[in-house]
TrEMBL record:
<keyword id="KW-0407">Ion channel</keyword>
<feature type="site" description="Crucial to convey clamshell closure to channel opening">
    <location>
        <position position="520"/>
    </location>
</feature>
<feature type="binding site">
    <location>
        <position position="364"/>
    </location>
    <ligand>
        <name>L-glutamate</name>
    </ligand>
</feature>
<protein>
    <submittedName>
        <fullName>Glutamate receptor 4</fullName>
    </submittedName>
</protein>
<keyword id="KW-0472">Membrane</keyword>
<dbReference type="GO" id="GO:0015276">
    <property type="term" value="F:ligand-gated monoatomic ion channel activity"/>
</dbReference>
<keyword id="KW-0770">Synapse</keyword>
<keyword id="KW-1003">Cell membrane</keyword>
<feature type="disulfide bond">
    <location>
        <begin position="604"/>
        <end position="663"/>
    </location>
</feature>
<dbReference type="GO" id="GO:0045211">
    <property type="term" value="C:postsynaptic membrane"/>
</dbReference>
<dbReference type="InterPro" id="IPR015683">
    <property type="entry name" value="Ionotropic_Glu_rcpt"/>
</dbReference>
<feature type="transmembrane region" description="Helical">
    <location>
        <begin position="491"/>
        <end position="511"/>
    </location>
</feature>
<keyword id="KW-0675">Receptor</keyword>
<keyword id="KW-1133">Transmembrane helix</keyword>
<dbReference type="Pfam" id="PF01094">
    <property type="entry name" value="ANF_receptor"/>
</dbReference>
<dbReference type="GO" id="GO:0038023">
    <property type="term" value="F:signaling receptor activity"/>
</dbReference>
<keyword id="KW-0406">Ion transport</keyword>
Length: 722
């Protein structure tokens, strides 16, 4: 049995068996009684490897002395004599007993062969039938003798002259010494020939078809599954065939519905199912607010969260009782390499050892886990993504008061300033050269005489004023009258139109995208640099994904992470904290749904960047062969299709603010129904107010200087004191 379990575990399908060595029937019953006292309502699968008489005694006494445990125990008979067990004590069932035998006493061929060999089973039975089963040992002995006779017959038919017919032993020794101390015994000189003949034997015996392979092992035989359940008496349940797996045919063929097989018997209706879980926001959390009546939360009411809502509704719809238990080691379940006695940990190990009936949380469905436990259909789809701290753009400081200058480079601003001065000077010159810009006035003097006056509106000050008004998209009281002046003014207007339009569009786009600027935009960016460190959690499927990936980018990332084992956070909570605390020096790789949740909470300084690195799903885990798997899966799909799961996801991710409050912009969005995160703050446009204030102050100062200057000139002309 030890080697059988070892072979199963080496194949990846782990089976946990606790071996109990017993000396007699009393010792075996005592150990079973100790299991009764644990008070657990979970199923116990007990393998009995004892003699036929001891097995009969144990089963009879368990049936009569502890009838209350009949639904909690499944007995598997390890030896091939299940059909010889005395079922008279429970002919209508009452215990879950399962086992195999090799003698098919339901066929006429077997009965005929038995009658030919034995004539009668014992003194009480005159024939071999179901009411008088033969001893399996006798059947094997008969087949062994028949095979040996057939092999000897083959040797003689082949005419082997080297095989003796009278004394087969060498030198008339009369036999072989099995212990020729101190020398090892010598093989029989005719042994190889006899073994070769035995391998060629092919016949139909009491134990079925007898055929051997080249190594001498029996092949193509059939085991008959036999047993009882708590509702049915002894019956043939199916067959198991030893044909090679390459034939792609099922080895186990059940005759009855699988529910009637003892090892797969349906759980009692009043059973309380144990559901293991793990505390992870927002999937499963302990309640932090007190009860309305002032007491303490008890039982399953101690917890809340996305998965708590799902399991509550699921069990309510199925009318099943359940108890939530937080996994002791705080792990989802990872394979422990080199650990034969404890190959997995976390919730997966709880299911493998049947300490729990189901597992719910952010438990990822993976091929490695599917080898040892079962999963329902997924209730949430997601993938691995990158979580980093939000950072401003590298070209400017987000608190810069002159942010409105950023859309255009310093070189462009300088070129615009020189263009403004150049256009003003050119306009002044062409206005001086063109006769059309000169005007002749006849103003009236004080003494009544007229005096001719020639003037030109486009002096240097008016030229500067005209160019500035055009650049600011404002009107001006003067315009060029000459063809040359109008050409200069037109190209300047065209120039300012393009510049202002480009500036406006670039400023709008700049303010929109500035908050999205990030040094990392994808996994390729992360793998190509070393300034920002990154890692997954220490245990879980995210780490397994990078370790097993064959994609070059992910292989480089795993090489980087594995070279820094101290850099792996213990869990997701530690990883999120490091992203927030290490000031743009750490990126955390975890499930996209968890990133979205944490990015909308607390200080709101984190975000998710890049596409999903893979595709994965969350499901409800359960032990292999769990009787309620189908009904749980179907009801879970009903919850998904009815949008119940999506409604709870939206609540816990986007609306709940009872703990770790939502970001302010998220709260504003929920209240107003629109995103207000694009509003400009005073710190971003304070520069234009400073320019306005400086302009007004300069105007006031110049007006005062003009007043003093004019007053002084008038006093000088009129020869009066100020």
């Amino acid at each position: 049995m030890y080697h059988v379990v070892g072979a199963i575990n080496n194949a990846g399908a782990y089976v946990v068996i606790h071996f109990k060595y017993v000396t007699n029937v009393t010792d075996a019953l005592a150990k079973l009684a100790a299991m009764d006292k644990t008070g657990s309502e979970k199923k116990h699968n007990v393998i009995i490897d004892m003699s036929l008489n001891d097995t009969n005694t144990v089963l009879k006494r368990r049936f009569t002395e502890t009838p209350q445990t009949k639904l909690l125990y499944n007995y598997l008979i390890a030896r091939l004599f299940t059909n010889e067990i005395d079922f008279k004590a429970f002919p209508a069932g009452g215990m879950n007993i399962t086992g195999f035998h090799m003698v098919d006493y339901d066929t006429d061929v077997t009965v005929k062969k038995y009658n030919q060999v034995y004539r009668r089973c014992d003194l009480k039975c005159g024939s071999f039938d179901n009411t008088c089963p033969t001893s399996n040992g006798a059947a094997f002995a008969a087949d062994s003798l028949t095979v040996f006779i057939k092999a000897m017959d083959l040797l003689h038919k082949n005419g082997s002259s080297n095989f003796p017919t009278n004394n087969p032993y060498p030198k008339n020794s009369g036999g072989l010494a099995c212990a020729e101390w101190p020398n090892a015994p010598k093989p029989w000189i005719y042994g190889e020939k006899l073994i070769g003949a035995l391998k060629k034997v092919e016949l139909d015996g009491l134990t079925g078809k007898i055929l051997f392979d080249e190594d001498g092992y029996r092949i193509n035989f059939t085991l008959y599954l036999f047993g009882t359940t708590s509702q049915e008496g002894p019956a043939k349940l199916g067959t198991w065939e030893s044909h090679p797996r390459r034939l792609n045919r099922p080895r186990l063929n059940l005759i009855h519905d699988t529910k009637s097989v003892g090892l797969l018997n349906v759980d009692p209706d009043n059973k309380t199912y144990i559901v293991t879980t793990i505390l992870r926001d927002p999937y499963m959390m302990e309640k932090i607010h007190p009860r309305p009546d002032g007491g303490n939360w008890t039982g399953n009411d101690r917890y809340e969260g996305f998965c708590k809502d799902i399991i509550d509704q699921l069990m309510r719809d199925l009318n099943m009782n359940y108890e939530l238990r937080v996994v002791a080691d705080g792990s989802h379940g990872s394979k422990q390499k080199g650990n034969v006695t404890h190959p997995w940990n976390g919730m997966v190990w709880e299911l493998m050892t049947e300490r729990a009936d189901m597992a719910i949380g952010d438990l990822t469905i993976s091929a490695e886990r599917e080898k040892v436990i079962d999963f329902t259909k997924p209730f949430m789809n997601l993938g691995i993504s990158i979580m980093i701290r939000k950072t401003p753009g590298s070209q400017f400081d987000i608190t810069d008061m002159f942010i409105f200058m950023v859309p255009l480079s310093k070189e462009i601003w300088m070129c615009i300033a020189f263009a403004y001065l150049g256009v003003s000077v050119v306009l002044f010159l062409v206005s001086r050269f063109s006769p059309a810009e000169w005007l002749i006035n006849d103003p009236m003097e004080d003494d009544g005489k007229k005096k001719t006056c020639v003037r030109n509106d486009f002096g240097i000050y008016n030229s500067l004023w005209f160019a500035l008004a055009a650049f600011m998209q404002q009107g001006c009281e003067i315009c060029p009258r000459s063809v040359s002046g109008r050409i200069v003014g037109s190209v300047w207007w065209f120039f300012t139109l393009i510049v202002i339009s480009s500036y406006t569009a670039n400023l709008a786009a700049f303010l929109t995208t500035s908050r999205m600027i990030s040094p990392i935009g994808s996994a390729e960016d992360l793998a190509a640099q070393t300034e920002i460190s990154y890692a997954t959690s220490r245990e879980g499927t995210s780490r397994d994904f990078f370790r097993e990936s064959k994609i070059s980018t992910y292989e480089r990332m795993w090489a980087y992470m594995s070279s820094r084992p101290h850099n792996f956070p213990k869990n997701n909570a530690e990883g999120v904290r490091r992203v927030r605390d290490e000031n743009d020096k750490f990126a955390f790789l975890m499930e996209s749904t968890s990133i979205d949740y944490h990015s909308n909470r607390e200080d709101c300084t984190t975000t998710r960047v890049g596409d999903l690195l893979n595709s994965r799903s969350y499901g409800i885990g359960m032990p292999k062969g769990f009787s309620k798997k189908n009904v749980v899966t179907l009801q879970l799909l009903t919850l998904v299709e009815s949008a119940f799961v999506e409604e709870r996801r939206k609540y816990w991710w986007e609306e709940d603010s009872s703990r770790r409050g939502l970001c302010k912009d998220r709260q504003d969005t929920n209240k107003k129904g629109e995103d207000t995160s694009s509003s400009l703050s005073i710190s971003k446009i304070a520069g234009i107010f400073i320019i306005l204030l400086c302009g007004m102050m300069m105007g006031i100062i110049i007006s005062i200087l003009e007043l003093f200057y004019k007053t002084k000139i008038d006093a000088f002309r009129k020869h009066v004191s100020i």
